[in-house]
Design a protein that fits this description.
single chain; 3-stranded antiparallel β-sheet; 57% helix
Length: 517
């Protein structure tokens, strides 16, 4: 008896997806590390004539962070976006270089090595999050827990024991000698809550209600969540005296409402509510009105010389003007003349020594991260992932606008800092978590679908005997009589059935997606 020989026509060719080698990310990562390390060296050579004392430890640690994150992504999230990590490492490196430059100029409070430690801690948390969080949809289970955590973090600075007021804003807590800004983490918790809430209620918010002057207005009872967030954001503005955090929270919710419903009426309602609340607060509360006066009349002599007046914003404007188009060069300017040049006003410090050209390159790097986040939101298949990725990308863009707009006097000055560049442990830790979530969502968005090929049974085989419509055991095709048929009798992958068949499952599987975890 001769063995059956499989003919070429009977062979089945199954497509396979090769895991990406992530060479593009590795190449960009090398360029980002080279830019940051070169900036360290140039700062030291310009200020002291030699390499800084912490040059090698900082360089090796930053390189180790980049390589470790690259390896973890290659192993656990191989389809994740390949541009986000190098962009973040570039911003981190340039920010460390500027903080080091201010530290070498004996600027009080500047500490490059402390910033490096927080960078390592934040990157470590991000790596662990990518490693252990295999599916971002699991976070949806924490929707209302995230709401409670976010509200608790917002309230923490108001507590009498641990709350601290610094420079007129009560947005800090001090625990065991460590200062923390809870609002940085609250934005992540609120983004998770908003994504989980809106993916469930977006149809009601988008379709219910009447049209007035072409705008789809929501029903009164559907306004409850936005009214609560509006009141909470104004409470932050009034009691914690922080315009930036207030604007960040409210802007995040309005933006995610628009992403979920695609109704411009929500954006209009949000802008009107926040504008009205800010005007009332400016007229009633003195500290809010003082911020408005500094914004509108910074060059007034009385305001310039007043304690907490416009001195900082004016010096920052002079620093940007001194930088010109190409800047003075690393270590050649006077950024230390601006108060808090290493944190709140690091943008003006970079503008003085790198010029408008350098600032545009930095802003484009931020916009690249935001664009990749929004692209991930478009590509991911589930509704929760779309809203979460879009919200996280938008909150970074809004924070960048608030910081740069305050320094350049587009809007009143706030207490927020530039992500990844300004000195501050809370901001670094929170934004590294944001990046980890974006990378995880982008991996799930780009990962090839596990759906079977046409005519094939999914991996694991049929769980139940199918019901076959059509011919069976010599019956006339097309009778339309359902016949129960064992799965083992179904045609093999490579064979062609002699008559038309259609398998119908007796117990249809529940739909899969963001709404069913």
């Amino acid at each position: 008896m001769s063995a059956a020989v499989e003919t070429p026509a009977e062979r089945t060719v199954e497509p396979t997806e090769r895991r990406p080698a992530r060479l593009a990310e590795l190449f960009l990562l090398i360029l980002a590390l080279a830019a940051g390390i070169t900036a360290f060296a140039m700062v030291g050579r310009s200020v002291t004539g030699e390499l800084p004392g912490d040059f090698w430890p900082v360089s090796l640690l930053l390189t180790g962070i980049g390589v470790a994150a690259h390896v973890v992504l290659r192993l656990r999230a191989p389809w994740a976006d390949q541009v986000i990590l190098p962009a973040v490492v570039l911003l981190n490196g340039l920010g460390l270089a500027m903080i080091l430059r201010l530290e070498l100029a004996d600027t009080k409070g500047a500490a490059a090595w402390s910033q490096m430690m927080y960078t390592a801690l934040g990157a470590g948390i991000a790596i662990l999050l990518v490693w252990f969080l295999r599916d971002h949809r699991w976070i949806r289970r924490l929707t209302y827990t995230a709401m409670l955590v976010g509200l608790g973090l917002v309230v923490l600075p108001l507590l009498p024991v641990i709350g601290r007021e610094i420079n007129g804003a009560r947005i800090w807590v001090n625990i065991a000698g460590f200062s923390l800004q809870p609002a940085e983490f609250a934005k992540i918790a609120f983004a998770i809550f908003f994504a989980g809430y809106l993916v469930t209620n977006r149809d009601t918010l988008a379709l219910a209600g009447k049209k007035v002057l072409g705008l789809q207005l929501p029903r009164i009872r559907d306004l409850g969540p936005i009214i609560i967030v509006w009141a909470a954001s104004l409470a932050v503005l009034v009691f914690e005296r922080d315009l930036g955090t207030s604007l960040l929270f409210f802007g995040l919710f309005v933006a995610m409402l628009y992403l979920a419903t695609e109704r411009f009426s929500w954006v209009l309602i949000g802008l009107v509510l926040f504008g009205a609340g800010a005007l009332v607060a400016a007229s009633v509360f003195p500290h809010v009105g003082a911020r408005m006066d500094v914004w509108l009349h910074p060059f007034d002599n009385e305001l310039y010389n007043a304690v907490g007046g416009s001195f900082q914003i004016v010096q920052g404007t002079f620093a940007l003007a001194a930088g010109g188009l190409f800047g003075t060069g690393w270590g050649e300017g006077y950024p230390y003349l601006v108060p808090y040049a290493f944190s709140d006003f690091i943008y003006s410090s970079l503008g003085e020594e790198l010029g408008l050209t350098g600032l545009l390159a930095i802003l484009l790097t931020y916009l690249l991260i935001v664009q990749r986040g929004l692209r991930t939101a478009i590509a991911v298949r589930d509704g929760f992932g779309k809203l979460l990725a879009g919200g996280l990308a938008f909150v970074m863009a809004l924070q960048l606008f608030v910081v740069v707009g305050g320094i350049t006097r587009i809007i009143p000055l706030t207490g927020l800092t530039m992500p990844f560049m300004a000195q501050g442990g809370s901001s670094l830790l929170a934004n590294w978590i944001v990046i980890a979530l974006l990378l995880r969502i982008s991996d799930n968005a780009r990962r090839p679908s596990a759906l079977p090929m046409r005519g094939m049974v999914a991996q694991g085989g049929a769980m139940h005997d199918p019901i076959v419509v059509g011919a069976h055991d010599g019956a006339t095709p097309g009778t339309g009589v359902p016949v129960r048929r064992p799965a083992a009798d179904a045609p093999s992958r490579g064979s062609t059935p002699s008559h038309p068949t259609e398998a119908i499952s007796r117990h249809p599987d529940p739909p899969t997606g963001g709404e069913h975890l």
